[in-house]
Amino acid sequence: MRTKSWFFLGWPLVLANLLLFFAGCAPVEEKPPAALYTPPRLHAYAASDNQINLGWFPGKECSCPTCVCRLVREKEILTQDARQDYEDTGLKPDTTYEYRMVGEEGVVARVTARTRPEQIIRKTPYLIFNDDPHTMTVMWQTTGEPDSTSIQWSTDPQFKRSGGKDSSYGELPVGVDSLGLDENLYSFTIKNLSPDTTIFYRVFVNSETYKGSFKTPPSRQAPEVSFYAYGNTRRFPQAHDLVAAGIRQDIAQDPARRQTICLHTGDFVTFGMDESYWDSEFFNPDFEHIQKFLGSVPLVGALGRHEIARYPWFLPPGDGTGGHFFHKYWPLSMLTTRLPKSKDFYYSFDYGQVHFIVLDPFPTRMDPKLGFEVSWNAWPVSAQYKWLEQDLNENQGKWLVVMINSPLYAPIKSDPKVREFFEPLFQKYGVNLVLQGENPFYAREDVEGISYVTLGGGGAALKSPWPKDGKPPKDYQGVFALDYHFARVDVNPEAMVVSVMKPGGQEIDTFSINRPVKGSKK
Questions:
Q1: Beta-sheet strands, E only, within 167-272
Q2: Residue 213 burial by CB count (10 A; 0-12/13-18/19+): exposed, middle or buried?
Q3: Which of 92, 183, 244, 435 could form a disulfide with 293 if both were Cys (CB 3.0 to 4.6 A apart)?
Q4: Are 346 and 336 in contact (CB under 8 A)?
Q5: What pTM does this model have?
Q6: Which of 300, 297, 226 shows the shortest CA–CA distance to 265?
Q7: A single GO molecular function, which one (predicted)?
Q8: Hey, what domains does the chain have and what are their CATH numbers?
Q9: Is 476 helix (H, G, I), strand (E, B) or coil?
């Protein structure tokens, strides 16, 4: 699948290289395509060696809930209902299947997908940030119990010992994590590292080797730091792969400063309570840039609405068990509580002199008067609200960045309750930047000295809040772009510079946040 998608997206690059070859020039350096990825009507991705997940966007010839289209594999009708997602199971490994969506007037869309070959790796190595400049956790998952698995790390890219015993070099066997993680999910924390140091590592699974590197966090007194942010990576790993390639390319221009951490504003996958979607979308090993990105930059995420959604319908649970797989794959040490007792996903951490606060706005309880679930997490009586005020109070004087999936300010889908209760605290304690998700576009609205930035172009199908022509009205006061994107934030003692870019590096938006003079009001 990756080969097919990159064939169509990369043919101009191939043609350019051929022309240069015949002209006697060296080939051009490969860069991620700048053009937008256009989501297909019918899409399919391998979830394993025996399952393919499919999605369908109805059009005028097939509109839900009166959809009359049938999903057909070969000659077998898989479903005739109005679902927009389907899990095709019981398939043969390493086999290509053709799917067709057939309406009253014939075939309206078709796609092919190939199941994965039988392989031991399920999720390639990825990094977990521990809010500690002296440690980093590496995690990976296998399809079954391997004969052996181990990890090796060093400050030397060739893994050579510098004479005698070197504390920066290690090789130890690894077992299943002791936190109750199941299904061959391995976790190893590398300790006693120096801050702001590049570490190279290799993970061995049977005869296979997976390489990566990371940079340990700077000291908490570091005056200058950089970090990345993006979100809404669900549904289309091809598009996510383009964004990941763009971030990797930006890091490669200055790795000493830019190989740091990346914030994710939520909505990692389409159905976060169905584990197969983590396999077919976010951790899909068919997409090289995503896997290399996750293996070189630790991701710090916010719980998104789709992380508490179950296949086949969007049904967020009200019993507090939402986000189980999010907790499973990101067992962050900064969390205030843990499963099975945890009902919230909020925490804070420091990176240099920047203090980050990650909030959980989602409904966890039923309001009997209203008849639907409400976000108790944002109300002043909630534990999160009290924790937030205390955390803000204790970290005054630092750069303050808040991340939350539900937007306080955005062209659409802004949450009035979250805004009503959280905004006064942000104003009172001088929050500098609020990173938001949920909406599949880029937007920025500056309100009372705080920049509210929606980062929702990480892979989901882009959609404008203005369906007529996709463009904001003349009276819209914010910044808007319907493009896949990511943000890099460069921080120094005087200012925070936010650069929002397309995967190809083209600028979408750049703005600065100046630090208030000590003792003055924002």
A1: 170-173, 185-190, 198-205, 208-215, 225-230, 262-264
A2: middle
A3: 244
A4: yes
A5: 0.85
A6: 300
A7: metal ion binding
A8: 1-30 (no CATH), 31-114 (2.60.40.10), 135-215 (2.60.40), 225-514 (3.60.21.10)
A9: coil
Task: Of 114, 36, 71, give the one whose Cα is nearest residue 460.
Answer: 36
CA distance 482 to 282: 22
Helix/strand/coil percent split, the chain, to 5: 20, 30, 50
Q: 400 near 349, Cβ under 8 Å?
A: no
The larger pLDDT score, comparing residue 423 to residue 30, is at 423
pLDDT band per the 50, 70, 90 thresholds, residue 326: confident
Tell me the per-residue pLDDT of 116-137, one tens digit each, with 9 for 90 and over: 999 889 999 999 999 999 999 9
Question: Is the distance from CB of 305 to CB of 362 less than 8 angstroms?
Answer: yes
Backbone angles phi, psi at 145, to 5 degrees: -75, 115
pLDDT in the model for residue 1: 37
Least confident span in 63-72, 170-179, 223-232, 388-397:
170-179
Burial class (CB in 10 A: 0-12, 13-18, 19+), 106: exposed
- Which alpha helices (DSSP H) does 395-492 contain, by range? 416-429
Helix 416-429 to helix 383-394 angle, to the nearest 10 degrees? 20
List the single range of 152-161, 203-212, 492-501 with lowest mean pLDDT. Answer: 152-161
CB atoms within 10 A of CB 520: 6
Cα separations in angstroms, 254 against 220, 243, 248, 259, 297: 21, 18, 10, 8, 14
And the tokens for 25? 């020039």
Which pLDDT belongs to residue 88? 94
Of 487, 447, 450, 262, nearest in space to 356 by CA:
262
User: What tokens does 408 get?
Assistant: 């306080």
Reply yes or no on whether the pLDDT at 258 is more than 80.
yes
DSSP structure class, residue 278? I
pLDDT at 336: 53
What's the sign of the alpha-carbon dihedral 432, 230, 452, 328?
A: negative
Pairing of strands 106-114, 52-56: unpaired
- Read off the pLDDT of each residue in 479-501 and give the average, rounded to a whole number: 97
